[in-house]
């Protein structure tokens, strides 16, 4: 999204002689949330904007001119990646591919090979490195708490071929077996489910409101609206209720891995 809003907020804060922390205290928010708004990574809720107007004496400017979320641009994931690093809880849903923080190098590279226009080897290498860097958040044994909800189609589509898929699924299984993540599979025979329309990542934080990230064909956007985040969480909860339990999901994933290994 355009950062005109965030830059204007920063200008008015500085004109008022306030630090981000002082504004946060006055508006009953958090410093990190103010920082994200000023940097253009988050859009305040209407209530937050109203309190910012009161704190800065700007009438109803900030609440009346909230930017529309038009973050579906080429570098659409940049802001979401910053939020991902700060999240204490992440809930992922994958309908067509393994979520990024769980991808292996071979799997990520196979996905990049499908790009159009085609990417150069250097571009693919850079992307793979970025994906693996994202996965480093799992090096912390406790945070963020991660739950991955996977459509069975993610496991059955042989991205990169049998060997790549066997390695990829085994990687997710290992993370689940050591307790670093939870993984649940939505089986084919369930039929329709509430999350069929696309990819979803939900994030919770210690010091700012929760956010969601949705992604489509070369587009993606962060969703800040509390009402929309609640709706997406409701859909996630319903889908989770229909998914296979943890141990049954792991058993299925191991069986699929063995099938790939036999054909590798």
Automatic annotation (TrEMBL):
Domain of life: Bacteria
Domain HTH cro/C1-type residue range list: 9-62
SUPFAM superfamilies associated with the record: lambda repressor-like DNA-binding domains
UniProt cross-references to PROSITE patterns, sorted A to Z: HTH_CROC1 (PS50943)
Name by which UniProt lists this protein: Helix-turn-helix transcriptional regulator
Native organism: Streptomyces catenulae
């Amino acid at each position: 999204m355009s950062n005109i809003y965030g830059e204007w907020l920063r200008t008015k804060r500085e004109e008022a002689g306030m630090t981000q922390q002082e504004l946060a205290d006055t508006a009953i928010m958090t410093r990190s949330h103010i920082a994200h708004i000023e940097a253009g990574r988050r859009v305040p809720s209407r209530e937050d904007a109203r309190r910012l107007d009161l704190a800065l004496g700007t009438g109803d400017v900030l609440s009346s001119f909230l930017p529309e979320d038009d973050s579906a641009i080429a570098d659409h994931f940049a802001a979401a990646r910053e939020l991902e690093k700060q999240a204490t809880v992440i809930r992922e849903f994958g309908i067509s591919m393994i979520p990024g923080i769980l991808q292996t190098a071979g799997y990520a590279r196979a996905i990049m090979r499908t790009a159009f226009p085609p990417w150069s080897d250097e571009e693919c290498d850079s992307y793979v490195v970025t994906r693996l860097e994202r996965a480093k958040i799992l090096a912390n044994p406790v945070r963020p708490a991660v739950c991955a909800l996977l459509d069975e189609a993610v496991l059955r589509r042989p991205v990169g071929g049998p060997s790549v898929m066997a390695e990829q699924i085994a990687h997710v299984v290992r993370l689940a077996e050591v307790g670093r993540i939870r993984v649940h599979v939505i089986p084919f025979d369930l039929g329709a489910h509430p999350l069929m329309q696309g990819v979803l990542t939900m994030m919770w934080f210690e010091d700012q409101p929760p956010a969601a990230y949705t992604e489509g064909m070369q587009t993606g956007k962060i969703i800040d609206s509390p009402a929309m985040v609640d709706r997406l969480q409701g859909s996630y909860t319903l889908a989770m209720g229909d998914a296979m339990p943890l141990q049954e999901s792991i058993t299925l994933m191991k069986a699929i891995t063995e099938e790939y290994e036999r054909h590798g």
